[in-house]
TrEMBL record:
Residues 8-19 have a biased composition (Low complexity). PANTHER family: ECF RNA POLYMERASE SIGMA FACTOR SIGG, RNA POLYMERASE ECF-TYPE SIGMA FACTO. The keyword S-adenosyl-L-methionine does not apply. This is DNA-directed RNA polymerase sigma-70 factor. GO terms for biological process: DNA-templated transcription initiation. Residues 153-205 form the RNA polymerase sigma factor 70 region 4 type domain. Residues 1-27 are annotated as: Disordered. Residues 32-99 form the RNA polymerase sigma-70 region domain. It holds the Pfam family SnoaL_2. Keywords: DNA-directed RNA polymerase, Sigma factor, Transcription, Transcription regulation. It comes from the Bacteria. Interacts transiently with the RNA polymerase catalytic core formed by RpoA, RpoB, RpoC and RpoZ (2 alpha, 1 beta, 1 beta' and 1 omega subunit) to form the RNA polymerase holoenzyme that can initiate transcription.
Length: 345
């Protein structure tokens, strides 16, 4: 797997020069640190499974780095030093915490008649993250594709099955393409220990059935874009015949914070016509989350209802992942508190 995007680094992964480059003016420490915020947020999100916890972890990393910057002696690159701090921040946050998951990781699919139940705490769930918070805006297309694939909700959920240090090893080695020696230095460990942890992590992910492919998907092609346009049209018109034609036969619907989830397009349509009938008249505003197409869903009265993250499969809609914590998520995605057309660019 190739190295993912590394905004703020030189071509060989080293630190940004303090003088800003050839002939440039010296850069302030805060600017040097901030150059790494996006990639560090992506790393912490993969570690923690929460956009909010990832941003808190990166902020703590920046604070610690700022306070210690005058003692940074350059024995490693600035990037390596920041990842060392971020890793220890994440490992501290993960002590004693339960692993985050998706509804399908916790139980078998429900039926349309199953009571929706009581919502579980936010700490139960893998949450969505806006692409712009974790993916570099420019870079090598192959690296960008790898980065997109490794923030996919299913893959982030699979990472949570790993012990925290194994998780860090696998992300650093397989997602960011660090050498075993570099990871050993970061973790104050040995190369043999890192290689052993990586082997165990790979085995666990293989058993989970969800690993990031070496050949990651490219940005949406014309056919996928057309599929999404047809989906928006069918959903907003609440045309169940048109929607059924777009859904994969094994399409899933999940709705954190509720544990209930459904599988199969027949059950999805029954849900929308029954318990989910309040979705009629909704409007969908496009956003981008977890390397996938996504939408902010507003009810007919203009109130926020969900962030939908869409997975496609075999030319159809394969998963509708709907996150209902709109009070926190809509501001995170830059969406207005009431529907009034697309958000400003």
């Amino acid at each position: 797997m190739k190295r993912s995007s590394t905004s703020g680094t030189t071509a060989d992964g080293g630190a940004v020069p303090a003088d800003g480059g050839a002939g440039g003016a010296p850069r302030e420490p805060v600017d040097l640190l901030e150059a790494y915020r996006t990639e560090l947020t992506g790393y912490c999100y993969r570690m923690l499974g929460s956009a909010f916890e990832a941003e808190d972890a990166v902020q703590e990393t920046m604070v610690r780095a700022w306070r210690s910057y005058d003692r940074f002696e350059g024995r490693s690159s600035l990037r390596s030093w920041l990842y060392r701090i971020a890793t220890h921040v994440c490992l501290d946050l993960l002590k004693g915490s339960q692993r985050r998951a998706r509804p399908m990781d916790l139980a078998s699919p429900s039926s349309v008649d199953t009571p929706i139940g009581t919502g579980l705490p936010e700490t139960t769930w893998i949450g969505p993250v806006p692409d712009q918070r974790v993916l570099a805006s420019a870079g090598d297309p192959a690296e960008t594709a790898v980065a997109r694939e490794t923030v996919r909700l299913a893959f982030v959920s699979a990472l949570q099955r790993l012990a925290p240090r194994q998780r860090a090893v696998l992300i650093l080695r397989e997602v960011l393409s660090w050498s075993a020696r570099e990871v050993a230095e970061l973790l104050d460990s040995s190369v043999a220990s890192v290689n052993s942890a990586l082997q165990r992590a790979r085995a666990t992910l293989a058993a989970s059935g969800d690993t990031a492919a070496d050949t990651a998907p490219q940005p949406l092609d014309d056919a996928q874009q057309a599929l999404l346009r047809r989906y928006v049209d069918a959903f907003e018109r609440f045309d169940m015949d048109a929607l059924t034609a777009l859904l994969h036969e094994d399409c899933t619907l999940s709705m954190p914070p509720y544990a209930l989830w459904l599988r199969g397009r027949e059950d999805l349509v029954k849900w929308l016509l029954g318990p989910g009938c309040g979705c009629e008249g909704s409007r969908l505003v496009p956003v981008a989350a977890n390397g996938r197409a996504a939408f902010g869903q507003y009810r007919a009265d203009g109130t926020p209802w969900a962030i939908q993250v869409i997975e496609t499969a075999d030319g159809r809609i394969g998963a509708l992942q709907c996150f209902l914590d709109t009070e926190r998520l809509f501001p995170l995605f830059g969406l207005p508190a009431r529907y009034g057309g697309p958000p400003p660019a």
